[in-house]
Write a structure and sequence with these properties.
It is a single chain. The chain is an alpha/beta fold and 209 residues long. The protein contains 6 helices and 13 strands. The strands form 3 sheets. Strands 1, 4, 5, 6, 7, 8, 9, 10 and 11 form a 9-stranded mixed β-sheet that branches. The termini are far apart. Bound molecules: 1-O-pyrophosphono-5-O-phosphono-alpha-D-ribofuranose (PRP) and uracil (URA). Uracil binds next to α6.
């Protein structure tokens, strides 16, 4: 089935985006707000997750109830993806976490892989690939390839700010996955940064510049 693209349009999301885009926002507020956005996005991004019908005994009677039918695995792309994990886990506390370590080659902008570790259950899980920034799309495409190699089939991508170039690349290379973004920006600049964007997300999350 063809994946869908959802760009969030909600007052809370707009408000929180205005905080993280602001160059004067410091590490603490930036980190906390990214996490809050992750939590809000998780609510909507999990809307199509499959459920299984159950029968639950209440103190009064029995109720027809529904539970998410498979384990959930969150896969942040290091480093910046880590910033959204806690927020998503607030809503899905039983989710397991896999990690993909990538950095962009400054010249080619292609991702270089330095780490990968997935939970053993990933093949039969609902996988949420997380990276706040979708610039050229190289990192997300690479991470989704790694997840697909495990045999996992139900994969979504959740990010904060995307560029049209990156969105088009993920749609082209992975037309089967749903894409959820808090905002779709104008373009990339000549250094591969999203315009207007929010700068270097990893540096702002971890205070490395
Ligand atoms: C940033 C960002 C994404 C990637 C997006 O990571 O966190 O992973 O760039 O760019 P792309 O869509 O062009 O691949 P970076 O390489 O700066 O590593 P870091 O998170 O460790 O700082
Ligand atoms: N990575 C970032 O952190 N920011 C961008 O704008 C592009 C890639």
């Amino acid at each position: 089935m063809e994946g869908k693209v959802v760009i969030f349009n909600h007052p809370l999301m707009h408000h929180k985006l205005s905080i993280i885009r602001d160059e004067n926002t410091g590490t603490k507020d930036f980190r906390e707000t990214v996490s809050e956005i992750g939590m809000l996005m998780a609510y909507e991004a999990t809307r199509d997750f499959p459920v299984v019908e159950c029968v639950t005994k209440t103190p009064v009677s029995v109720a027809k109830t529904y539970k998410i039918s498979k384990p959930v695995v969150i896969v942040p792309i290091l480093r910046a993806g880590l910033g959204m994990v806690e927020g998503i886990q607030t809503l899905i506390p039983t989710a397991k976490v896999g990690h993909v370590g990538l950095y962009r080659n400054e010249e080619t902008l292609e991702p270089c892989e330095y780490y990968m570790k997935f939970p053993t259950c990933i093949k039969d899980s609902l996988v949420i690939v997380v990276d706040p920034m979708l610039a050229t799309g190289g990192s997300v495409c690479h991470a989704v390839n790694l997840v697909k190699k495990t045999g996992a089939k139900e994969i979504i991508y959740v990010g904060l700010v995307g560029a049209p170039e990156g969105l088009a690349r993920v749609q082209r290379e992975h037309p089967d996955i749903n894409i959820y973004l808090a905002a779709l920006d104008e373009k990339l600049n000549d250094k591969g940064y999203i315009v207007p964007g929010l700068g270097d997300c990893g540096d702002r999350l971890f205070g490395t510049k």
